[in-house]
């Protein structure tokens, strides 16, 4: 029972799959064609059979018609003869039998008879018998033979029955006993008394030879019967049959003997065969001509034709079947190949695939689906209902919802394309897509997208979060800011804090990247601690961070926050065992006060941050409109600076460097001056950073170097010249070449040139900078470390490169003479320099006290307004000349 249900289900599935397929039409067409051939053949054969039977009947009918006409005429002659004899007797006035005998028994009558029957081919010609049956005259012989027919049935019937006028009977002949057909007519007297008979005898073969002329062919017969059933003649001739009565009494046969014209089918009383029978009653005699032909013989030709037809039809059908079979085999072969390919494709798919028909029954299911949910193939197989599949999943634990609710939901929208991601009990994410099929039903794919979605999440995270600190990056912050900006219309303000870790580069370069990374992580954690849930902390890159503070536009509140951040950051960080002090510069922009679009706000926070930096770092600034103006000015400055060199707006001034012990000028520092056509004198402190940022410092620095060397070459004695070299110039590997060229051009002894560099040179790229410094040293040029004490860890640089001189920054000098001054630091630097055979120059000496203290501290040189500010070349020359003269 179960098997048959399964089988019928499978058949239904197969049929449904094949429905509408060309193959189905082909097979159906083939069957129709075969049926049409069979029916056509059967109809044709039947038609031909009818035709054969009809034509058999036609030929039988025409045969009997022909024979009947012939015999009617033949026998009419005899009747005429008899009648004429009788008429003659009557004309002789014969009144008695005796008179008849004597009148008839004459030669004259014999002559007359012979003349009348001259054309007859009868056995016995015309004979006349008297009332006693004795032959009294004959057309054949005279005198007549002694013959009596008194014993013959026909004679006695004619004699005894005055109504009987004629008798036809087959009798055994007197000679040789051969049967003869006797036609006898009664001769009656005027009062009806019996005088005798006139007869004629015909041998059956005489009729039969005539029958034969019709040529009816095989298994046919032609016979002449008396209406009473007696057979008179027949072909094929059988002696025994002649004279026998074949009347059976059946109504069909009675019709044959009695009706004028009959065509019928009968079982022959002679041989029992089924025969077509045509019979015709002679017009003048009670005789019937019957022609028959067996159905077998009639249908002989038809049978041959039928054989031919059936053979042809059979061959056609066979050919058709063969063709169909070949096509079917070819197609099924191709289908099975395609199925194999499809199966391979389906089973190597990474997705689970199911196809349901319009009755929600499974058509196709691949291996992956079964494996994906660890299902049983005994349940999940073609023909199973969708609901049963889900029930099975429910039973095996891969589906947890309510089966009916789920199925009803899916089925109600099975005609639509659907897609959903569901989570399985074991935490996998499966993307299910349902696609409606063209002929109803739907295709479902199940894709395990767990890895993909996790990878997408990871990628999305990487795209939006900083790998080092796991803080949101610039991209995410911009998205966040856009949302905040959209909320401005709802009256929700916010602020952006740009935080730049001060001196981070130094930590990274001097203590290594690992320490640097750890510092950034700690900074990130501390910043996180400073904000609440709605606020965003982001790392913008390098040592730059940002905080988006939601819900405030109050500068006081933001000031508290900035200070809190600075305080938090200032607590030294323990990085891999190193205590690192950190600090930051913070710029703050407030929305909507400082802008209501992203770029403006970011730019203004940045400007505020640069303001904090340029105003000494370690502090914060809230944006003010003048920062914009400054930025604009800086842009203008930049524009003008690009043309200044070509326009000859630069001039080099020289500030004397005075030997503290001897109180004489031993060198000068070249300091660049810019005569701006509108703004007047612009401080190098203002434009040098711009020149550095734009890269113009390369050309400008080279120009200063040449200028200074040329100028120094004209000075008396061995007074040396100190030229400031920007860290940016150290990025060019040709610096030493340029210095050499300036020396060669000016003819200045290399020993008289001193290059002032800041520790930033060494921070940027140690190895490269050291190589260039080494090259310069090899030229014979002296190297001084400028602005010593302002940087991050100046002392470490002293170990790395043997400078010729240290210039102690003005910030250590300016407070000398005041309580708690920096003189101990200056003292320490002077000692350390002396230990390394380095000279020391104190910068910015403005008072006598300072000079005195410095001299006592053992500082070798001083520079400052106390002696002279930087002066034009001409003025310096005068000064030097005066000194030389003194
Ligand atoms: P610096 O190399 O430390 O130069 C010394 C600065 O201190 C000069 O400022 C000088 O005028 C100033 N100064 C000297 N004595 C005193 C004093 O007694 N009191 C005060 N308050 N200041 C004094 P200046 O000329 O404005 O130069 C500023 C900075 O610009 C220089 O600092 C130097 O770093 C840079 N600079 C100047 N000329 C050039 C140049 O040709 N090339 C490069 N790369 N930088 C230059
Ligand atoms: Mg200097
Ligand atoms: Mg200096």
What report would you give on this structure?
The chain is built from 29 helices and 32 strands. The chain has 886 residues and is an alpha+beta fold. An eight-stranded mixed β-barrel has the order 23-24-26-27-28-29-30-31, surrounded by six helices. Strands 2-1-5-4-3 form a five-stranded antiparallel β-sheet, with helices on both faces. Helix 28 links the parallel strand 30 (839-842) and strand 31. Helix 19 crosses helix 20. The protein is rod-shaped and about 225 Å long.
CATH fold call of the largest domain: TIM Barrel
How would you write the strand order of the largest sheet? 23-24-26-27-28-29-30-31
**What small molecules accompany the polymer chains?**
ligand C2E, magnesium ion
Radius of gyration: 73 Å
Q: Quickly give the CATH architecture of the largest domain.
A: Alpha-Beta Barrel
- The count of β-strands is 32
Based on Cα principal axes, name the global outline: rod-shaped
Helix content: 40-55%
CATH homologous superfamily placement of the largest domain: EAL domain
Number of domains: 4
Name of the top-level CATH class of the largest domain: Alpha Beta
Q: Descriptors for this entry?
A:
rod-shaped, binds magnesium ion, five-stranded antiparallel sheet, 886 residues, 4 domains, alpha+beta, EAL domain-containing protein, Rev_trsase/Diguanyl_cyclase, binds ligand C2E, Alpha-Beta Plaits, Beta-Lactamase, Nucleotide_cyclase
